[in-house]
Input
Amino acid sequence: MAELLVIRHAQASFGAGDAQSYDRLTDLGHKQAKVAGEALRASGWVPDRLITGTLQRQQQTLRSMGFGAAPETHPGWNEYDFHDLLHARFGGDVPDAVVGDRKTHFRTLRETILDWQAGGLASARESWADFAARVEAARAYSTADAGERVLVVSSGGAIGQLVAASLDAPPKQMIALNLQIKNTSISRFIFSAHRFFLHEFNTTPHFAPPGAADLLTYS
Output
């Protein structure tokens, strides 16, 4: 059976006040991606297809991993727009602590996603149903070709939803999974024309060697 490896992008610019400012890797993020790419090649895992969403941080991650070929892109692999969701929740006046304090940010994000899933945040540009549908469309696109090894660089929310859907888990499990996903972690799926299931979730073997643990981040 074929393999789909979905890697979360490397560390982006947490604390940026808008989506455009957040959408770029830090220096540490480039190092994380480089180590992840080296580990894949050292294991002998060579992809037949390279796919990312359309976000800059995803495409920068793939380049820093050392895969030089131009990837295919599918917008279904993009993250939900959490800046837009927070603005919808707070009427455009997001508290400073939600933007700059990690603990407050992630607690608020969880509450916001649960509200979104329940049909709230009507002013948001994307509904929960539309988000879930585009992630499924990205999965179908990425597993439809004859490639035996497919490498995708995506984002935490899309990966959390993909994992939850593959396990037929309740929607609320998506954010629980999302908040666990480490930068450049690997989630591995096995698929055929009629089957798709999770094999590994959120693994970071590239951070196991001595000294590499300092590269581990979650945002």
